[in-house]
Amino acid sequence: MIYTEDFFSPGSSYPADNLVQLVDSYSKENVNYVKYAGTTPIVDDGVIFRAKGSEWYVLSNYISGEYVNVKQFGAKGDGVNNDAPIINYAIEVTSRLKMRLFIPKTDDFYLIDPQVLTVDETSPIQPNIHVGMLIQSNMNVFSDKAVLKLKDGISSETAPKDIRMFFSNDFLHDISMSGLVLDMNGLNNLITSKIKQCKKNEKGEIICNIIYSQKTQFHFGFSGTKNGIGSGANNVLIENCSFINTAGVTCISMCQSNTANVMLGRNWIIRNNLFKNNGLDSIDHSSIFGWAKDVNCYNNTFYNDVMPDSTDPVGGQVAYEVHGSNQNFFNNTIENYYQGLWVGINNSEDKIQNIYIHDNTFKLSCVFVDFYNGNLEDASSYPVDIENVFIKSNVGTITNTQVNDGVKQFIRINAKKAPSNVFIENNTLINESYVKPCSFFSAVYVEKQYSSLSHIFVNNNSGTNLDTGCTFFWGKNMDFGKIQILNNSFEYKDNTGVDIKCYGNSTSQDGKILDLVVSNIKSFFSDNNNRAVISGHFSFPYHNMSLVGVSLQNGILKSNISSSSNHLTVNAELRIGTSTSFDGYPIAFKVNGAVSKSQTVCDAMILKSSHRYLVKGVVDATGSWCTLTDVNGNPINSADPTLLSEGTVINSIFVIDNPILTV
Fold it and tell me: Which residue of 227, 238, 484, 487 has the fewest C-beta atoms within 10 A of its own C-beta?
């Protein structure tokens, strides 16, 4: 039995046969070396190419295409010795030679004490970034669940450090990592001082808050140089890995650059991974920062033991951030996060498009998909279109966790550059929140709004225990475009919710939805500022109706309006109160915003005590007025056909041949 270090030691007397069978001095595996007959210049790397005197040998695994064991390079995996330099060297060698590197599971873990010091785009001085292993092109690392664990105390509350386990500032290609458990040991590498900073508010009250650090400790990723040269990678596969216990803001960073027009990485696959208990000391944690194009992320689990809330906000803030075109996020599970996904922009594409978010399950405290309003913060990202987003067949729960947001929701669009062609279909939401109201969908206009919302389709979804179905909020005089809300099934707390709610922060802001197509709508709220022009099939209580000939006072006017087959059907009920008065003119109802195209007859009835009087009405061909008369055609007022005193009820049903209504 001959060990490799003995055979290749200087002055070794072992015969230099063409094939030698040895035992690796470190891994104790049987290995074979053959004489190398090539002419390409090579170096003795200590494992794969070896020199024996003037002879060169190569590990047979290189010829056969098999992997090499990291222990052959001297890695221990004993939890005591720092294995980072050895793993880093093994990655450099095997990547250069396009070989697979195997990191076997041990009874302990591979201790990572990051000694590579570098900078990235956010670093003001050198050295600032502590790196365990540098990612290389053609890196192919796999394992059977070996644990790589960061050493205690690299970072602390009083001396926080930016740490990356795997990192690069270069633009690389063809990278694969499988089966590793990457433990950032976050509770022993904290980044935030728990000393509260206090200041007076406008009322003179002293408010104290912890200012949380946003140090970028992460497991695997890219950034960019401080000179603004973006980094990233093409053709990356990350599968069957566990990313656990980071204190910082992300686990996987595909790229990060505030510089315009940097090259974006492409063709990433992230599948079958576990992201657990991350963001342990950060309120800005996104487990995957998807700053790339052509990404497929599926069959992953995002989980935290504790859900972030308003009293303890650290933890999983967002599972995934979309920052590039052609991204597909599906069959993932997200639990105990504040939000599921952000859809935002990068600084390189004029249009972010073709985003697919489907067949995921979630349990969150606030929002599943948030179209991030920071997509116009800087001139370098102005303007950017977000188009063709498909959010389909997702199922999840919004919990009762206390949050700072005023409303919880399944989808929120509050982007300054509003997205278009957003399809929200066949999703299911269960709301458990009573501490804050919850809506299925909301579109919120924000300060410095740049463009109008248009082409939004909310179809065939279901929601239970909601406060509102779909909410549209105006903060600016800007109209919405085409919006469809069809065949949804929304159930509300105590049956008091509203299917569609349209309102603004000021009645002087008179924007509206210009083309709203609805069906299966049972309730509609508008702040009476002509917020929507609706069509389609619907039925809901209607409050935007006018009376003529009557001063209502403490009387009651109720109405219901529905649409089908290009006609509006109105049910109006006027109940006379003690102070209701009449001006002697005929009583007439009008549907504001609808215009009849022909004169029609309406049916009406007056109920007084036990007496019932059948009357008629005529809908004119100009303003959709239904004017009441008795059976002889005489105008109805306070005296004809009977005194309209307190308690008298007038019911009227009339049809308008116009399918569009402004409410």
Answer: 227
Asked if pLDDT for residue 380 goes beyond 50, the answer is no
Residue pair 349/325 in contact by the 8 Å Cβ criterion: yes
Contacts of 643 (CB under 8 A, 6+ apart): none
Distance CA 368, CA 429 (A): 10
pLDDT digits (tens, 9 = 90+) for 333-377: 999 999 999 998 888 888 899 999 999 999 999 999 999 755 445
> What letter represents residue 350's amino acid?
D
Per residue, the 3-state secondary structure of 589-622, as one string, reads EEECCCCCCCCEEEEEEEEECCEEEEEEEEECCC
Residue for token digits 């919990």? 399
Q: Are 645 and 637 in contact (CB under 8 A)?
A: no
- 510 DSSP β-pair partners: none
Q: What's the gap between Cα 82 and its chain centre?
A: 38
Closest CA relative to residue 269, chosen from 286, 244, 252 = 252
Across 75-225, the runs of DSSP E, i.e. the strands, are 101-103, 110-112, 116-118, 129-134, 140-143, 147-150, 162-168, 171-178, 181-183, 196-200, 206-210, 218-222
Alpha carbon distance 149, 172 (integer Å): 25
Main-chain phi, psi angles of 17, to 5 degrees: -70, 160
At residue 490, the 3 state secondary structure works out as strand
Identify the residue whose tokens are 């950017």: 384
* Residue among 654, 649, 643 nearest 569 (CA): 654
Q: Which two tokens stand for residue 496?
A: 């008091």
**166, 204 in Cβ contact below 8 A?**
no
Give one word for 388, left, alpha or beta, with left for phi > 0 and alpha for psi -120 to 50: left
Q: Are 251 and 289 in contact (CB under 8 A)?
A: no
> What's the whole-number mean pLDDT along residues 287-293?
96
d(CA 512, CA 493): 28
* Maximal CA-CA distance, the chain: 128
Tens digit of each residue's pLDDT (9 = 90 or more) over 487-512:
999 999 988 899 999 988 776 677 88
C-alpha separations of 627 from 186, 311, 611, 657 in Å: 74, 60, 22, 17
Helix (H) or strand (E) holding 61: helix 60-64
**Backbone φ and ψ of 460, nearest 5°:** 60, 35
Place of tokens 């008298």: 648
Helix, strand, coil percentages in the chain from 3-state DSSP, rounded to 5: 5, 45, 45
Assess contact for 396 and 432: CB atoms under 8 A.
no
Neighbours of 1 (CB within 10 A): 7
Closest by CA to 267, choosing from 258, 257, 256, 254, is 254
| Cα 125–Cα 130–Cα 133 angle in degrees, nearest 5 | 135
Round to whole Å and give the CA distance between 398 and 431: 5
Alpha-carbon gap, residue 563 to 480, rounded angstroms: 22
- What does the radius of gyration of the chain's CA atoms come to, in whole angstroms? 34
List of residues 6+ apart from 639 with CB closer than 8 A: none
Rounded to the nearest 10°, the torsion over CA 312, 318, 323, 327 is: 180
Of 444, 392, 464, 396, the closest CA to residue 422 belongs to 392
Query: What is the spatial distance between Cα 544 and Cα 560, in angstroms, rounded to a whole number?
Result: 10
User: If we measure between CA atoms, which residue out of 50, 41, 68 comes closest to residue 6?
Assistant: 50
